[in-house]
Amino acid sequence: MLIFLLQITICIINCILITANNTVPTYQINGLQALYASTDGDNWNWHGLVGHWEFTDPTMNPCLDAWEGLTCNTHCSNVVTSSCSIEGIDLGSYNLSGTLPVELFQMTELTNLDLGDNGLYSTIPSEIGQMELLVSLFLHNNNLTSSIPTTVGSLSGLLTLDLAFNQLTSTIPSDLGDMSALQILGLAFNLLTSSIPNTIGSLSYLRGIDLSFNMLTSSIPSSIGTLSSMTYMDLGNNYLYSSIPSSITVLSGIKGLDLAFNLLTNSIPSDLGALNAMTYLDIGNNQFTSSIPSSLCNFSGILILDLNFNHLTSGIPSCLGYLKVLNFLQLSNNQLTFSIPDAFSNLTNLQHIYLYNNYLSGSIPNWFSNLTNLLEINLSGNLLTATTPSDIGALSYLQQLYIGGNMLTSSIPNSIGDLSFLSILHLNSNLLTATIPTSLVGLTSLEQLDLSDNMFDSSTIPNWMSNLTSLQQLYLNNNNLTSTIPSSIGGLTFLKQLELEYNQLTSSVPDWISNLTALEQLYLNNNQFTSNIPSSVGDMLKLRQFDISNNLLSGTIPNSFGPLIEYISASVNINITGSIPPSYGDLTTLGHLNVAGTGIGMYLFSNFLSFYILYLKVCDSYF
Prior knowledge:
By secondary structure, the protein is mainly beta. The chain has helices at residues 2-21, 26-38; strands spanning 70-72, 86-90, 97-98, 112-114, 119-122, 136-138, 143-144, 160-162, 184-186, 193-194, 208-210, 215-216, 232-234, 241-242, 256-258, 263-264, 280-282, 304-306, 313-315, 328-330, 335-337, 352-354, 376-378, 400-402, 424-426, 448-450, 473-475, 482-483, 497-499, 504-505, 521-523, 545-547, 554-555, 567-569, 575-576, 592-594, 616-618, 621-622. The strands form seven sheets. The chain has a 25-stranded mixed β-sheet, with no helix packed on it.
């Protein structure tokens, strides 16, 4: 019995010691309470059913009771020698709303703090510099304002700092250079100004840096070339100027480099090709001049190459055709000349090719049909001649084809109708003749069809177009189309834009046009339509732009239009008479009404001022 009582006594003493040793420090509890109170803890989005924070019960222990979002040290357990301390807080996407309390940053044992993807606002307290054991800090995607506190430089053990997607202002503090262990730095999508500090070059372990979408205005510091561990760098969408520093070419391990949408000038450094680990290079939307350096052909593992919207000249280097894993090539909006290199026939992994708005000449090569992985081709706005390759239908995965704005001749090849996944087809502004081929009836996935500005041989609008039931934009303007608008077009219920202007269409505008209930833009001007404008046009509630000018119409204009109408033109129809209906004064979105060259008289309605902007032309006079 004595031994039994002694065992019970020892057990009670151990329990008392365990309770004492497992107590979380008061200042940590205070930090949690302050965070809960200042960020509307009662409305947090808990991810689990248990472990919600409870401060009213003094027996609750954040570590032993496994409070959600907390990580405690591994020694915190039911052992007499244990001690409890909170080391991590992960409340990313918990709907925190409020400010960061100073008490939080007195939890100096924290190694990980993630409060990203919430609704935090106001400033980052300077006391953050007290958390010298932090390894990772995530405050991204909040509404934090003001400057980055210079005290972050005290976080010498920090590996990851993510403050992206906030509203931080002022300069990037040079003190960041004191964070000697930093590997990942994310400051994108803020309002940071001035220069990139030279001290960035002191971060010898930095592997990834994203400063994109700010307002940085300086040259790229040459010290960036000392970041020997760098694998990904994004400085895009700023106002950086001058040349790419030659020091960047020693970053031999870099795989991704984005300098797009800046003001960088001069030529692309030929030494850039020494970065042969590159898989992603985007230096588009700058002001680079001269030719594309052939050294870029050293990027044997590159997947994405984007040089668009610069001032690059001369021909496209043929050796780019030996980048056999290339998936995405964007060279558009430059001043490139000569023909498309035949070596591109080797790019069998290519899915996207954009060469539009250059001065490329010659024909579209037949070998395009061998690039069977292609999803998008955009060669529009060049000087390409001859015919569209007859076997282009072999590109069975093709989804978008843009070859408008060239000088292509002859007819549309029938094989285009085999592109069953095609959603966009632009053949506009060429010299295409013959008729619109019936083979296009097979394009049942088509959403945009632009055949405008060609020279079709007195064709009619084909009835089979009613089979293109996914169509949202149809452009047949400025051709030689004759006869009437076929009633089958009325079945295209997803149609948003219909442009038939500058043809030779006749008869009346059909009443069934109002069946196109999704229509937003309707252009029928410069044809030979007769009779009245159907009143049913006023029932098209989504219609924004309506142009029926330069026809042979008579009668009156519709008494009403839908509430979204912005633009109406019925000008140069001399047999249209009557007056402007007073209901037009209620069309608050209407900004342009043109009835010049008609017999319409001016009706001075009392609610004239309800118009947003009104340019009213009557008999070539402005009122």
